[in-house]
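S.,

Sequence below, as promised.
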Amino acid sequence: MRTRVILVEDIPAIQTSLTAAMIHAANVEVVAVVETAEEAIEAAATRGWDVMVVDLFLRSGTGLAVLTALRRDASRQRVLVLTNHATLQIRQQCHSLGADAVFDKSEELDRFLSSLAFG
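The prediction came back faster than expected:
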């Protein structure tokens, strides 16, 4: 069975390219693509999923709000943060909120895809 992924990203071009890269490199099934924190929290509650890929800065809400909501729900699924703002402080904050890993979009895409493929 393929890993089921929810992608939380608000830029359509990145949604498209990232979805294609994840399917090709990690053989995943993208079960939802959402653009806001509210949509992400709703998708987490209503969709079957194994991994959520979360951007931090969204059209409405933040990835940090998504992490907080998932932690509150005691989620067992993996949450990977993929952001252009992967500073040490942001990484620490994401980990403290329950993120399994944080990757820089511009510098760590290969590491992200490997993590997605191999856990």
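The CA atoms of residues 38 and 61 lie 7 Å apart.

Coffee later?
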